[in-house]
Specification:
By secondary structure, the chain is of the alpha+beta class. Helix content is 17%, strand content 49%. The protein has a five-stranded antiparallel sheet, with helices on one face. Strand 4 and strand 5 (55-61) form a beta hairpin. It starts with a strand and ends in an 8-residue tail after the last helix.
């Protein structure tokens, strides 16, 4: 079973937080696939943007890391055409 983990990247501001998306084995927490995606969360307006190699590929609204993760799960499954659902 796969799990999507968002790892916070060091930030110089409290208004924008960047995350790196890594797909891990849910049982062992070991990385299975490093997506190369950067998720930028603008806290004030609760928007987030997903970049792949610097190109904007997805965006939406979310309050925190948990709601970002929930909203991009189906999209990541489809984007990477992964076999088996990520939880």
């Amino acid at each position: 079973m796969k799990h999507l983990r968002l790892t916070k990247i060091k930030s110089n501001t409290q208004l924008v937080v960047d995350y790196h998306a890594v797909i891990t084995n849910k049982m062992t927490s070991s990385p299975v696939y490093s997506t190369g995606l950067l998720i930028r969360h603008h806290i004030a307006d609760e928007k987030y943007f997903v970049f792949d190699s610097g190109k904007l590929v997805y965006s939406g609204f979310a309050q925190n890391r948990v709601s970002i993760r929930r909203s991009i799960l189906p999209w990541i499954n489809k984007y990477y055409n992964l076999k088996g659902e990520i939880v």
